[in-house]
Amino acid sequence: MDGASRARMARNFIDRYGADALRRLLDALADGESGQAIAVELDVSRERVRQWKNAFGRSVTMYQVHREVDDALREG
Question: 22 and 10 in contact (C-beta within 8 Å)?
Fold first, then answer.
């Protein structure tokens, strides 16, 4: 999906559900809420939530070392 398609999808979402609902959706996705819970809240299917998730952003996974382990490494 290109940038223009994503922007159009976001505008369509805002037209239908409102900007506050888009912010809530993005926050829910960022917080790892289940697609089912989001779908119930917005009265849509889990598939629609999955489509929005893929269109509006991306999941990024990273490994972050705990501070205590990093401190121990610096001390050692």
Answer: yes
**E strand or H helix that includes residue 6:** helix 3-17
Residues 32, 25: Cα–Cα separation, whole Å = 11
**pLDDT per residue over 7-54, tens digit each?**
999 999 999 999 999 999 999 999 999 999 999 999 999 999 999 999
Tokens 């959706």, residue?
25
Residue length, the chain? 76
Cβ proximity of 12 and 56 under 8 Å: no
- Cα separation, 9 vs 47, in Å, equals 15
User: How does residue 76 score in pLDDT terms, banded at 50, 70 and 90?
Assistant: confident
Residue type for 6, please?
R
